[in-house]
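for the writeup, i need someone to sanity check this before i put it in the appendix. the sequnce is what the collaborator sent (i think, or maybe the updated version? ugh). structure was predicted straight from it, no edits. if anything looks off just tell me and ill rerun, i have time this weekend
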Amino acid sequence: MNIKHFTYILLFFGLYLQAQVEKRPNVLFIFVDDLRPDLGCYGNEIIKTPNIDKLAGQGTLFTKHYVQVPTCGASRYSLLTGTIPQHMDQISNEAIRTYISGKPEGEKPETFIHQLRRNGYYTVGIGKVSHYIDGLYGYGEDSKNAPPELPHSWDKNIFNAGQWKDGWDAFFAYADGSSRITKQREVKPYEAGDVGDTGYPDGLSAELALGQLDSLAQSQKPFFLGVGFFKPHLPFNAPKKYWDMYDESQIPLTASPGIPENVNLASLHDSPEFNRYKLGEEHPVLNHPASDAYARKIKHAYYAAVSYTDAQIGKLLDKLKEKGLDKNTIVVLWGDHGWQLGDHQVWGKHTLFEKALRSPLIVKNPLLNNQKKKIDKIVSSVDIYPTLMDMCGIKMPYKTPGRSMVGLVQGNDRATKKWKEAAYSYFKTGMTVRVPRYRYTKYFRKEEPLVEMYDHLKDPEENMNVAKRNPQLIKKLDKILQKQDTGLFDNNN
């Protein structure tokens, strides 16, 4: 073979590889903070979420999706890396900062955003995608000098803090330009601001995202656009028009208002994050629950914040269609964990109960044939990494406990039958496994009881720990639990 022929072959191969990259689908990944599956598409007939509901109708709704850790930073670390906690600092909000920030490229684990970028994707991040608000780590640090939280993941990482000036104040923003921080917590945990959508930071993030989609529509490269919305994270602040969508008297109270039977209070908590808002009319704790009136007020605020976020998501989806990108863009909507709205007298996340661990997951892939509308199989956030790699035609860079869900989404009989329904979660002194009928939780602590089991067929709200009633079943569930017991809590006592 002469040099001329060899040159032609190289040129052809280069063009072929470029064409393969250009054929790959775009990805719009929407991260929503503290979003529980209280949405129209999940059966809530009161809340108003038309845009998310429409997305669910066009894609696949996962009814039983569970996160690995019920706190923001650690949940996002597991999602982005496809890993489960091996060390105690991997269940903290600093997990990403500890294991990814400042590390050299090529050190494992790596985020799926990093892998997409390495394989020809142009990657853009807006808002709270990792843990820190603007993608620059450090509470209260000068954004101009703060290092990036995901140093190898982004081609472009942008955020508009607006009148709040820095990301951390924007995260706890009130309509007058103040924040929970500047007000030294002398604020209420909710606000109905007499402002438009851009009167709070999520509206500014939506505007940034719309501008990026305008630019990305002109690109020859496939793109990954990650947009992280703050709401409905505390404070439950939203423009007044979203509050006005609801009749507070019609908002239902929780179906699990009391402490579950046969549990230790150590399995729960006194809602410290919620009670940081000093001007709240009530400060509910386990031995002094919120009044019905206040519970409705706070749920009203949460619903308004969800509807506000839903409206911003609608703007992104409309822009995708306007630009003709909807035909070649995978859309993923993911909640980083649930949130207990007075369930078991808790106002917050940070428990190993269903309400804190179950969150929304919707995937729309316009390039898949026979995409199922709803999947009731149990899936985990760690399954999302291999799923995205599969959908984008990229080989997984390392082995993870997660599995591609493409077979489930396509309704493949073999994949559906072989799917192992078990979701593992970890926090503080315990780990839990969710299987189709039961939730089994084991605590590594001094306070008894050390195990809890909830029968979701008879008790979907987890109001009664029935672990003592069936010791043989407990043994079986414990064996399932041990499959992903990484020894995280071995030295915890």
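The radius of gyration is 23 Å. The longest helix spans residues 292-322.
thx in advance!!
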